[in-house]
Design a protein that fits this description.
Length: 213
Amino acid sequence: MQIITIPVTPFAQNCRIIACEHTRLAVVVDPGGDCEKITAKLTEHGLTLTAIWLTHGHLDHVGAAEQLRQQFNVNIIGPQQDEHFWFENLPMQAQMFGFAPVTAFYPDQWLAHGDEITVGELRFSVRHCPGHTPGHVVFYQSQQQCVIVGDVIFNGSIGRTDFPKGNSEQLIASINSQILTLPDNTRILAGHGSDTTVGHEKQTNPFISGRYG
Ligand SMILES: [Zn+2]
């Protein structure tokens, strides 16, 4: 598995290209913007894009998805359907985040907890992790021990819950049941900031260690 990280948007959102090294097929996860940077990386590495996967509907994670869908004629897959209102409200999000105006679009396929999605020979399982947003999902690859978590958990922090339909208790419950139950050496690829591991966050993350209530 090849992982190419491309920081996009003024929020330095970690867009990831996930590629199967045997087939050279790839997906783009959370293309928040800077479409030309993403397409340049696909070309540079000789990869064929098969789909766009979204963890949630915040604009800094989805801003280039529609452009990529049209350019490559691929499907947008995910997140879970409770996220619908964030897509409906993409024009409002552009104002909220101070981004250029956008029009609403929708995924081709919503995901459900327990779904399996593939790129080439790589299989990821879908885990529903509401709290930051209601339809947030994460993508777990068990052989490579890696999980793409969007804005659920970060190195030393957790996702914001002060947006509409955010819920801090639900977020902590999602982290405890869906992330911290993974093996300690599982690599966490977060939507912002540096990579970390499940074990490291269990030991040091102040928001989940109970130190701050
Ligand atoms: Zn977010």
